[in-house]
Predict the 3D structure of the following.
Amino acid sequence: MLKRGGYQKKIWYRLGLWPALPPKKPNIKRIWIQAVSVGELSSIGKLLEEILEGAQHEIVLSGTTSTGLELGNERFGERILAHGPFPLDWFPFSGRAWKKINPDLAILVDSELWPEHFRQASKRNIPLMVVNARLSDRSYSRLKSVPFFWPVLIPQNLKVICPSERQRSRWQDIGVASENLSISGNLKIDASDFGILQIHEKNELRSEFGFDEESIILAGVSTWQEEEKMLISLTQRLRLENLDLRLLLIPRHAERRMEISKVLESSPLPYQMRTKSKKAPPDNVVYLADTTGEMTELLQVADLAFLGKTLPPNQGGQNPIEPIALSIPLVVGPNYQNFRETCADMFEHGCALRCADQSEIIKKIIALIQNQKSRDQMQDASKKWMDKQGSPTSFTLEKIHSLLS
C-alpha cells in the first residue's frame, strides 16, 4: 500500500466502514464483485455489462488498487449500487463490510483467496465464486506446499470457473472439489469486445502522437523494467538504418513514468509523455502513454507489438488477447507463464511469435518490420483465432444465474 500509493482515498472503506446501502428490493439479487486492479476489472467488463443489462440484479463493486478503483468508477460508477475499496481481510473490517453490503452472491476475479472474506460468506450461507480463476506458477507452487492451510483457504462451497483445463487441474490439486470446478474459456476474450477505430480516427491518433501516416509503429504492450530499454535501443538502431520506425510505449504501471523518462532522456530520440501533453510535436519518435485505461484505443495505431513482462528477468507475461483481438502481429519473449495455454494456442495458429531470448525478439521484430506480407498473414491468423473462441461470458452468466436461483 505504501509502495503503490493512492490508498488513503476512502481509507474507511478498507476498515469495513462502507456507507449504509439501501434495503434490498423484492426479487432483486445483490452481487458483490471484487476485482483487484485494472487487469481483473477489464477482464470482466463484458460480464458486468451483461449483468447490469438485466433488471434482476444490483452490483456492489470493490477493488484494491487506486488505478483499478478509478477505472471502475469511471466505467460503472453511475450504474452500480456502490463502489469502493475492498476491506482488509481481518475479522473486524471484513465483518463490518459484510454487514453493510449483505450480498446474495460474492464473486472474486482471477486468483484471490481471502480467508476472512470466505469465512464471512460461509457464516451467512452465501455462495462464493471465483471467475476466470487462474493460479500462476508461483501461487500454485506455494499453495501446493501448504496443504494444511487448504481447509482455511478453500471453503467447501467455493465454485471455481477456470479459463482452461490446465487451470482446472491446478485448482483441484489444491483442494477444490471436482464438482465445484468448471471451464469457461478466458473471459478476456469477451472483454476485448471494444470499439474499433476507423481509418481516419487512427490517422488522427498518429498525428496526435507526432507520427507520420506512412511510419511503421511498434508498440510495447504493458511493458516492464528493461523492456523499454530494449525497444528504445532497437528503434534507435533501425532509424539509423533509415527505417521510419516509431515507438508507442504503454507501460504496465503508469507510475513508472519518471523511471522510463530517464531512459528516454539518455537516448537521442525525441519523445512525448501523454500526461504532460496528449499532442506531440511533428516528427516525434517515441510516445510514452503513461495513463491508465486507454490501452485498447491507443494500441490500434500499431503495426506490430511486443508483449510485456515476457523478457527476463521479468516473468509471467501480460495479457496477449488485446493485441490479438486488434489483429496486431505479436512478438512474445520466453516468459509467458501466466498465459501459457493461451499463448501456446496463439503460436500454433500463427498469430503470435515465441522468442527464446532478447536477441531472437529483436531478430523477429526486425523481420516483421521489413516484411508487410508476414504482418498481413499474422493479422489474418489473429482474426481466425478470435472467431473460434466462443463466449466465456455466456457460460459464466449461466453459472451465476444457477447459483442465485
In short: The chain has a mean pLDDT of 93.
